[in-house]
Design brief:
Length: 115
């Protein structure tokens, strides 16, 4: 599997789970991806090589509860205050960022398990 995550937007409005682990999928920018039913996204093992912001911003409006992004080459700081009004902030319960090159992890909601 290869291509941009953004390419799924028009066809998959009822998609609830998306497992793309260890594929050639890309996140190409900061354009929002609208997958209104998406609850679980796994991109672990994908060679994304993006900043934390470039990973999260396209997903802000989605009700994702599980986001697995282990070993994806994600860099930068994990910041949450600017996410406070986004759907993702309220829905996210498990966020696996292990095996990435993060500089710092700042505060997240108490209900969130950050691996």
């Amino acid at each position: 599997v290869s291509g941009n995550l953004e390419d799924l937007e028009g066809c998959c409005k009822k998609l609830r789970k998306l497992h793309l682990g260890d594929t050639q999928v890309r996140i190409s920018g900061r354009d929002p991806v609208s997958l209104p039913a998406l609850q679980s996204l796994n991109v672990s093992g994908c060679n994304l090589n993006v900043s934390f912001i470039d990973l999260v911003v396209p997903l802000l409006s989605n009700p994702i509860t599980i986001l697995l992004a282990r070993g994806c080459g994600i860099t930068g700081e994990v910041k949450s205050p600017w996410l406070a009004s986004a759907s993702l902030w309220y829905s996210l319960q498990l966020f696996d960022l292990s095996g990435n090159r993060l500089d710092a992890v700042h505060a997240w909601p108490a209900k969130l398990r950050l691996d």
